[in-house]
Design brief:
The protein has 14 helices and 13 strands. The chain has about 375 residues and is of the alpha/beta class. It has a seven-stranded parallel β-sheet with strand order 3-2-1-4-5-6-7, with helices on both faces. The chain has two domains: about 1-160 and about 350-360, 3-Layer(aba) Sandwich (Rossmann fold); about 165-345, Glycogen Phosphorylase B (Rossmann fold).
């Protein structure tokens, strides 16, 4: 059987896609899998690194603000649909899977036009526009949150959760390896700060001004900044003279980072939330306010309403985030409460469940 998996743009789309592909290979060792992404986006590097072939489309997103770049959108979309139809015709997939991101729209539309059954994986608690459009032709829609029949036909929905990388599931076995990798003391508590694969300006600027407080409290900090902020972060760390804070533009071995973290400060993207549930780490979530339909706040509230995480709004972060993190780090009882509640929301078999739904469509 042949499978196309399309989407990307951020790690939140790419890593679930790779997790699904890996499960398909386990279930169908002879499977041929082709990824379709957007030219110039991170999937064009991350997917081959995971061992899969990928084709690129010239598709771009449309910006909310008025800009001349938006004039290119319809032309790029047309070119991408034409190219996607070529890819589908040449590869002849048995099923096409869309995980979100710029490329998934043209690819799944082209597959549907060719009569190929399609499956959508909606990661967020509020469905994106592209997936709402594609749902009309999709045979199956795998979702991470209940109540998604507000966006999709109920008979097509399967509640699977979001797939995460296999190594994340075994993070608790990597504590010693994580301390060795990051050079940490077992006598000190560790805070992990992650703002997504590209970093988060609010988190970065808040950390920059709060470094001394963490150093004074004796807290070890692993700070993922994204590539744009890394030099500025290292300059700020150097100015404090603290050896307890370390900055990384990107962390590939996230299982080890989660393993050593007593508390995590994070955006509330779908992948981050799913990983936090799986590893069971107490978290302070700071949703990205400009996310489409404010879906990150909705993702976060799904945990907060279950007493499974704390919430700091983006506009309040510079004033309150550092103290909120310090308070949680010094409160073992609250940490345990959050850990217990968040673990109940984990979906450890999500990638396998989605792969099985894909296989059903081949029959």
């Amino acid at each position: 059987m042949k499978y196309i998996i399309s989407g990307g743009g951020t790690g939140g789309h790419i890593y679930p896609a790779i997790a699904i592909a890996n499960e398909l290979k386990i279930l169908d060792s002879a499977a041929e899998i082709l990824f379709v992404g957007a030219e110039g986006k991170m999937e064009m590097e991350k997917v081959p690194r995971a061992g899969y072939a990928i084709e690129g489309l010239p598709v771009v997103g449309i910006r909310r603000e008025l800009t001349l770049a938006n004039l290119a959108f319809p032309f790029k979309l047309g070119q991408s649909l034409w190219r996607a139809r070529q890819i589908v015709r040449d590869f002849q997939p048995d099923v096409a899977v869309g995980v979100g991101g710029y490329a998934s729209g043209p690819t799944l539309l082209a597959a549907s036009m060719a009569g190929v059954p399609t499956l959508i994986q909606e990661q967020n608690s509020y469905a994106g526009l592209t997936n709402k459009v594609l749902a009309r032709w999709a045979k199956r829609i795998c979702v991470a949150y209940p109540g998604m029949d507000a966006f999709f036909p109920a008979d097509k929905i399967r509640l699977t959760g979001n797939p995460v990388r296999t190594d994340i599931q075994f993070a608790d076995q990597q504590v010693a390896a994580g301390r060795s990798l990051f050079g940490l003391s077992p006598e000190r508590k560790t805070l992990l700060v992650i703002g997504g694969s590209q970093g988060a300006r609010t988190l970065n600027e808040t950390m920059e001004t709060g470094l001394a407080k963490f150093a004074d409290a004796g807290i070890q900090v692993i700070w993922q900044t994204g590539p744009a902020f890394i030099d500025r972060a290292r300059t700020a760390i150097s100015a404090t003279g603290s050896l307890l804070v370390q900055a990384h533009d990107f962390i590939y071995e996230m299982d080890k980072a989660y393993a050593v973290a007593a508390v995590v400060v994070s955006r509330a993207g779908a992948l981050s939330v799913s990983e936090l549930c799986l590893v069971g780490r107490p978290a302070v979530l700071v949703p990205f306010p400009a996310a489409t339909e404010d879906h990150q706040t909705k993702n976060a509230m799904a945990l907060v309403n279950r007493n499974a995480a704390l919430l700091v709004r983006d506009q309040d972060a510079r004033a309150t985030l550092v103290q909120t993190a310090l308070d949680l780090l010094s409160n073992p009882a609250k940490q345990q409460e959050l850990r217990t509640q968040i673990k109940q929301l984990a979906k450890p078999t999500a990638a396998r469940d989605i792969a099985e739904e894909v296989l059903k469509l081949t029959k």
